[in-house]
Here is the input.
Amino acid sequence: MRQRIMIAMAMALEPSLIIADEPTTALDVTVQAQVMDLLAELQRELHMGLILITHDLGVVADVADTIAVMYAGRIVERAPVHEIYRAPAHPYTRGLLASIPRLDQKGQDLYAIKGLPPNLTRIPPGCAFHPRCPMAQDVCVTEEPPLARVTYEGLVAERRSACHFWKETLDASR
Ligand code: SF4
Here is the structure.
């Protein structure tokens, strides 16, 4: 109810853009879905922009058009929502998607990305994800990958990935 009151207070200002930071944290799954439906409905009706900040990729699947995945304070992948779920082009996104519990994997160990996120005052050189990345090579330790355009046949919208090996990651994901 408190989340709904916060949303109502924000809507009363008739904003053109809402930034919702973890709007479903600490809610059970049913209420989580209700809050997300409410935000999506208001966004459609009022034609406002909606930026959702969340650690839960499962929550945004039905609401977002575009997802920007951030690691160590930087966007590492940006893509239309269905493209990113279908075939992630960054190992961190792959790890996040693999760690979402799935009904068809009942009884199996849940995947976890090894290690911990870096201290933001001591971000590793090169690619900040390299100490945890299963695909890391020597170049990842020294060269920061640019947020490069991802291209492949059948892709209509723009995609970007900050990985030296986005092609290999994409191939492994498809
Ligand atoms: S640049 Fe290297 S370390 Fe960074 S995500 Fe890509 S493969 Fe992994």
Remarks:
- Residues 21 and 53 are 5 Å apart (CA to CA).
- The chain has a mean pLDDT of 90.
- The first strand starts at residue 17 and ends at 21.
